[in-house]
Amino acid sequence: MAGTDVFTEIVDGEQVYKYYADGEWKKSASGKSVSIVNPTTRKPQYKVQACTQEEVNKVMEAAKAAQKLWARTPLWKRAEYLHKAAAILKEHKAPIAECLVKEIAKPAKDAVTEVVRSGDLVSYTAEEGVRILGEGKLLVSDSFPGNERSKYCLSSKVPLGVVLAIPPFNYPVNLAVSKIAPALIAGNSLVLKPPTQGAVAALHMIQCFHLAGFPKGLISCVTGKGSEIGDFLTMHPGVNCISFTGGDTGIAISKKAGMIPLQMELGGKDACIVLEDADLDLVASNIVKGGYSYSGQRCTAVKVVLVMESVADAVVEKVEAKMAKLSVGSPEDDCDITPVVSESSANFIEGLVMDAKEKGATFCQEYRREGNLIWPLLLDHVRPDMRIAWEEPFGPVLPVIRISSVEEGIHHCNASNFGLQGCVFTRDINKAIMISDVMETGTVQINSAPARGPDHFPFQGLKDSGIGSQGITNSINMMTKIKSTVINLPSPSYTMG
């Protein structure tokens, strides 16, 4: 059970989870807590500390001091710590998964998968970090016109300092470790601000890093209200890098953060373009998997289907048939469709549905909602004047727009302010490549639904979908900077000359 055995120390006698700072689990001096509501029962499930700005200051001071020592820790030793944390994380997958089920209504099997995947990500990062950080570069001056070989430039990657990691509710463990592990292997210290929904799962994950024996102050996890510590964290002068995954908040952060590196993934309106020659059974399977997995609460979910008119009826029919087999219910029962994360999310989704209804969209199923649970819905004959054609529902509702040409589909995709991922279904690889080249998205999947991963693949968004690139290698590189040392010789010297 969550909060027992090795996790006993992370919760106090009043069942309020502590925050983590300077190698210890602590209660906030504020005496206040933040309640976490179970999306399924819609009743309070957990409480976490409401940290103060002064506590954030102390965390930053400790992180800065710890980072200086950590940067002097041999690379192999850093990797050793990470491998140990990964093993502990996987060993305790059950209680962490239980938190995911209760906090964010993630289906039970998917919750376990997230934790195991996170452990694998940490181990892979350790290995990749040893490889890429163990290499430097030597440049010689005579490769540039007008120079003799009298200068040798040695360059290597060095840490940035303190990295602030802010993951989203939908993958509060996996998208936390995707920031934590690269930061640590690169020699940085790490301050984690978990989402409110998902905070307890994240705190359990942090305990696994604590048990691995990382130095005090190197890793911290602060919880609390965004209104109290959100801006204070992101604008803190002690932060040297921010890695954020979420929504519009990231745009506000980017405007306030100042002269520090930013890594941001801010959502998408991932388009699925279906050509006339596509394998329609494959299309239907991927639309259902891509559009409705975890109730559509994924940045890389299929968010709009752009299908050629000549095959639209057949595609809709096949998708409807597969949707009818989706189970709807509680995450404990491992249902395909579970409650969305909050009542406000459910209300937003319902607003998009009602707008589409008023403007004449065809409902392939009856709209049904009970509390935060929304039954999967396919909307056909959606037009560009409907909100659902452009806005990201983050729920189990998918619009179908019928197109008369590939160009029309590409135009709709590129007219979006988002540009995270997209997908193309066709048997003609030449067409697929040409369409991929003109789609303004960070990634294009050919004959498969959008997906983040495997975790070592580059993952990035264009336009309002983000800044920079993720994926293990890219994250390690992003959380370092280049340091050069130039050796000046008294006279030119040529090897074997």
Automatic annotation (TrEMBL):
The keyword Cell inner membrane does not apply. This is NADP-dependent glyceraldehyde-3-phosphate dehydrogenase. Gene3D superfamilies: Aldehyde Dehydrogenase, Chain A, domain 1, Aldehyde Dehydrogenase, Chain A, domain 2. It comes from the Eukaryota. Keywords: Cytoplasm, NADP, Oxidoreductase. It catalyses: D-glyceraldehyde 3-phosphate + NADP(+) + H2O = (2R)-3-phosphoglycerate + NADPH + 2 H(+). It comes from Ensete ventricosum. GO terms for molecular function: glyceraldehyde-3-phosphate dehydrogenase (NADP+) (non-phosphorylating) activity; lactaldehyde dehydrogenase (NAD+) activity. SUPFAM superfamilies: ALDH-like (SSF53720). InterPro entries: Ald_DH/histidinol_DH, Ald_DH_C, Ald_DH_CS_CYS, Ald_DH_CS_GLU, Ald_DH_N, Aldehyde_DH_dom, ALDH-related_metabolic_enz. Important as a means of generating NADPH for biosynthetic reactions. Its main location: cytoplasm. Residues 25-484 form the Aldehyde dehydrogenase domain.
